[in-house]
């Protein structure tokens, strides 16, 4: 169903990208746990805090897709990640991560040292890297507008989780969905604007998929 990556350099690129994604995630988790230890706080709470970020969840999906592709698995447990509609949905999500960080979060903090490196990997490097992977490695011509609806379940479910968790413990992962500071009305508007951005990104990917798929079919006729 899925063929191996077309060239050795491209395979090396995907393999290195997979390692970089997992390394960034591992170091970020380590930094959080170190901070929790310094504050004598729960390590379990640190892990929950780590997975409470859309950035972390999405980069984990990115790492899973890249790992499956690097291992040349077209069947079995990894085939799910290599389905075009799945990897394309992950592409839309990681683009949203990069854009949201640049537009809404970059000026809200000033990471230093190792944290700066990890931050760059998760927000600025992995999004374009994964777009390159999507363009060159994901089969084109199969996406439909209905897939955008399926992809949207992920950010919507995440937003619902953030509201429930924030209501329970009073902590929100991002300032633009902080109900305690902004109120539900403003947070809902922010979420709808972000969701609209996600839908636009997704529709662009569907359009590019159809265009590239048509080109490929014409080239083989």
Automatic annotation (TrEMBL):
Keyword Transmembrane helix appears in the UniProt entry: yes
InterPro entries the UniProt entry points to: Pr6Pr-like (IPR049713)
UniProt xrefs under NCBIfam families: Pr6Pr
Protein keywords: Membrane, Transmembrane, Transmembrane helix
Source species, domain of life: Bacteria
Name the UniProt record assigns to this protein: Pr6Pr family membrane protein
Transmembrane regions listed in the UniProt entry: 50-70, 82-104, 116-136, 148-167, 187-208
């Amino acid at each position: 169903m899925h063929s191996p990556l077309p060239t050795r350099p491209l395979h090396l690129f995907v393999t290195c990208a997979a390692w970089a994604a997992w390394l960034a995630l591992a170091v970020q988790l380590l930094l959080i746990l170190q901070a929790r230890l310094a504050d004598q706080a729960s390590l379990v709470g640190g892990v929950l805090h780590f997975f409470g970020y859309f950035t972390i969840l999405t980069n984990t999906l990115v790492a899973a897709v890249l790992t499956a592709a690097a291992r040349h698995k077209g069947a079995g447990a990894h085939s799910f990640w290599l389905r075009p509609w799945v990897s394309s949905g992950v592409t839309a999500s990681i683009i949203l991560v990069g854009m949201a960080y640049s537009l809404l979060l970059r000026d809200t903090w000033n990471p230093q040292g190792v944290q700066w490196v990890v931050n760059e990997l998760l927000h600025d490097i992995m999004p374009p890297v994964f777009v390159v992977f999507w363009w060159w490695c994901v089969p084109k011509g199969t996406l439909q507008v209905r897939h955008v609806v399926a992809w949207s379940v992920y950010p919507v479910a995440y937003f619902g989780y953030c509201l429930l968790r924030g209501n329970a413990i009073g902590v929100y992962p991002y300032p633009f969905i902080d109900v305690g500071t902004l109120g539900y009305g403003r947070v809902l508007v922010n979420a709808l604007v972000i969701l609209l951005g996600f839908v636009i990104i997704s529709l662009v990917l569907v359009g590019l998929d159809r265009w590239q798929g048509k080109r490929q079919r014409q080239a083989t006729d």
